[in-house]
Amino acid sequence: MAMRQFCTFRVGGELFGIGVERVQEVINYQQMTPIPFSSALRGLINLRGQIIVAIDLRTRLQMEERPADQAPMNVVLRSEEGAVSLLVDEICDVVNVTEQTFEAVPVTMRAAFKEIISGVHKLDKDLMLVLDAQRAIDVGVEMSEVNSVEHAVSHGVSN
Amino acid sequence: MARKNFDEILKEFLDESSEGLQQLDTLLVKLEHERDAARIADIFRVIHSIKGTSGLLGLNNLEMLAHAGEDLLTEIRDGNLSPSKEITTALLQMVDSIRAAMELVAQKKSDAGFNAGGLIARLESLKGGQADRPDVSRKAPADQAGPEAEQDLSAAPAPSGVGAQHLRVDVSLLDKLMNMVGELVLVRNQILQLGHSNSAITSSSQKLHQITTELQEGMMKTRMQPVSNLWDRVPRLVRDVCISCNKQVRVEFEGGETELDKTILESIKDPLTHLIRNAIDHGIESPEIRRAKGKPEEGTIILRAYHDGGQVCIEVSDDGQGIDAARIVAGAIEKGSITAERAARLSEREQKGLIFLPGVSTSSDVTKVSGRGVGMDVVKTNTERIGGTVDILTASNGGACFRMTIPLTLAIIPALVVVSRGIRYAIPQVNILELVRLNADQAAIGIEQARGCSVYRLRGRLIPILYLHEVLRLKEGDGRQEQPSEGVNLVILQAGMHSFGLAVDDINDTEEIVVKPLARQLKGLTVCSGATIMGDGAVAMIIDVIGLARRAGVEVQNEAQSRTAAAAEHDVAIERLVIFRVGKNRRLAMPLNLVARLEEFPKHKLENSAGQLVVQYRGGVMPVIALAGVLNLESDGEGSELAQVIVYEKEGKSVGLIVDEIVDIVEERLTVHEADFHKNIRGRAVIQGRVTDLLEIPHISELWTATAQTVRGVN
């Protein structure tokens, strides 16, 4: 039976897993440079000279904001366009699972979850939501050119 | 494993073929003008290897097309057909079609769905009444090319750059190395800042500094490519445009070996295409008109590239009718981009510059090629985006000449670091006009509200003010909380034809920054062009000034609207002037549009040559004149180590005028009072509440040889 290894972490109380082969490293909270016009794109991090973007999974999953006194952890993923960091609440174990414990995404799951969750593994005491890494990092900035110009014309640029 | 091999072969095939196809465009166009066995052999080689490899990879549709093209070329080579316009067009279409097939193959790894049946039939019909000889194409290329061509093959190796002295290196590897060098530069900077007391460490860090600098320079060179890579596409472009607008044009190239950073080369592709199209469509007259004017029927476009003081100039000049400033002005007034009064006051050069305004075109009719008035502002915007400028010159033969001046590289640029709400941003130096600091009192008076917009009166001209934190919608607590200092810091920026002031909390130093591209997720962030790592390791975003202006709607405003109402109503003679001082309390002024540059030279750099004071300047020798001597004034700048020089340019020649101090640049409505006490003073006026003499520049410039003896004053 083929075993798969998942790196697991918690976000807003839920347990998530991502294939270990996608995870480059796990690092502590880093100072970030905020990115204008974005919510889930939390900031830019200097990872040993490489500038990588950090995506807050709480925002991505439309969960409530992390309390200000709680520093997130970075799960740095490999992707075709370079490394991307996911901001999570807490890092958990690496777990081994087989196909037997896998279930499809429950139909009742919230849309924001369904968008980036590819399935569920039933662990002994918990459920592990399997994150689709590629879809999780597929998020852009929120600026619309058209609105901005109208905005500037009707209200003046200082608004 | 086998699959991987196939993919590798396919990739190699696509790489090689795209190089080959690029040559084909040029070769086919040349062949149309002049039949040459070596050229035909080159064309054969490319088509044949595409045919052979595509057959090998099972790309049968592609193979059939290449086969048909090869058959037609055989007829040309054997002298049965001559490469007429029609045949060349068909062959060029074949090249395009093969290119399209290649893209398909790159995506799908197969050419299924690619159908060039019509084109194949056309190629075959052009072959004419020749007996069908399918076996011909099955022979090896050497057999086909014949002994004469074979000789040429050995004499001229395939110009694909693959030889013993060259390696094919993946661009992404170079980018990675470049990144690492950028890192090294940052670490080096940090180490140098530590300033250790241990002399061994100090000397080691000095060495590190030197090696890093050399490594950085070497790395930059690996990304350089000759401009000719871009120009290879031009003959084909010219041919296509000529056919669609019935002109006859020949292209000449100079300085194709001039090298530029790969990314810059990419970004000037579109501007260059626009300029060439415009030159053919608007510049070069139709053959009939040219004949009537006594010019050769065939027009000439010259592309020229050369280095100029750390930058590269690329010129597109034509021998056509030149640019009619009056027509551009009329077009700009009609579009409402400028008022007639203002246009009348512009110099001819400034008037021609209006061509870069969106919507302005010199052409009265819209052709397929151009005339919609969109091209030129794209040229300007794209060139400025990479930190370059575009100038319009008049060629000696009366035609137009457009000159793009662009930086050698984009990887490391000088930038100003500013702070807004505790977050640092880098602004490319090339966009910055000046910095204005207003203390709290000045800000309260100086920054006014007009229709809900903040504006600032900069020397009489109203410029819109943008608050960086508002445009970027920085939220409270985004950065380290920092109380903005008292007063306002304005960075006056140029975005295309518009200038605006960007209000920031603090202004730091100018630094050389290593530009890093933004992650894919941030591609839509048009207000930033990249990011960089600061000396302390923090990341700062680089402001895209044009994107920021567009975001805030600055470009929505017209030049005419941004002027004060008062100035628009009765500004009869607004002039932009440089105010300077010669001798004690003697204020003089000259029009800014006559000033090429303001410079400072160490006094010891001023040399004597044949009784004339000169200075080495921008690779040449520039005569300098001490104004104090000319005007019989007592200079008080003798104690200073530096000479303040106004560089005046006329007909391509520069003359430096030594003054004691540059006071200001102002924009004033002038009331000129007669003053005939000196022939080099055309009058006097009250500027900034003080009497100021207006220098008579034409006299001064003619004077410089004559005044050789009077310059002793500064030595």
Overview of the structural elements:
- The complex is a heterodimer of chains A (159) and B (715).
- With 159 residues, chain A is of the alpha+beta class.
- Chain A is built from 4 helices and 11 strands, in the order βββββαββββαββαα.
- In chain A, strands 8-1-2-11-10-9 form a 6-stranded mixed beta sheet. A 5-stranded mixed beta sheet of chain A has the order 3-6-7-5-4.
- In chain A, a hairpin with a 6-residue loop joins strand 6 and strand 7.
- The radius of gyration of chain A is 18 Å and the shape is globular.
- Chain B is of the alpha+beta class and 715 residues long.
- Chain B folds into 5 domains: 154 residues, Up-down Bundle (Four Helix Bundle (Hemerythrin (Met), subunit A)), CATH 1.20.120; 51 residues; 144 residues, Heat Shock Protein 90, CATH 3.30.565; 145 residues, OB fold (Dihydrolipoamide Acetyltransferase, E2P) (Beta Barrel); 143 residues, CheA-289, Domain 4 (OB fold (Dihydrolipoamide Acetyltransferase, E2P), Beta Barrel), CATH 2.40.50.180.
- Chain B contains 23 helices and 29 strands.
- In chain B, the strands form 6 sheets. A 6-stranded mixed beta sheet of chain B has the order 10-14-15-13-12-11.
- Chain B is globular and about 85 Å long.
- Chain B starts with a helix and ends in a 12-residue tail after the last helix.
- The C terminus of chain B is likely disordered.
How many helices of chain A? The count is 4
| Known CATH architecture of chain A | Beta Barrel
The SS-based structural class of chain B is alpha+beta
**Terminal CA distance of chain A:** 62 Å
Helix-strand pattern of chain A? EEEEEHEEEEHEEHH
CATH superfamily of chain A: CheA-289, Domain 4
Let me know the average pLDDT of chain A.
86
Strand segment tally of chain B: 29
CATH class of the largest domain in chain B: Mainly Alpha
Q: Briefly note the CATH topology name of the largest domain in chain B.
A: Four Helix Bundle (Hemerythrin (Met), subunit A)
Q: In percent, how much strand structure appears in the residues of chain B?
A: 25-35%
Low-confidence stretches of chain B: 129-163, 478-483, 556-572, 705-715
Which CATH C-level class of chain A is it? Mainly Beta
- Which chain pair shows the most residues in contact? A-B, 39 and 47 residues
- Relevant CATH superfamily of the largest domain in chain B: HPT domain
Helix content of chain A: 10-25%
Helix/strand-derived category of chain A reads: alpha+beta
Mean pLDDT of chain B equals 76
**Fraction of helical residues of chain B:** 25-40%
What is the gyration radius of chain A calculated from CA atoms?
18 Å
Indicate the low-confidence ranges of chain A by residue numbers: 145-159
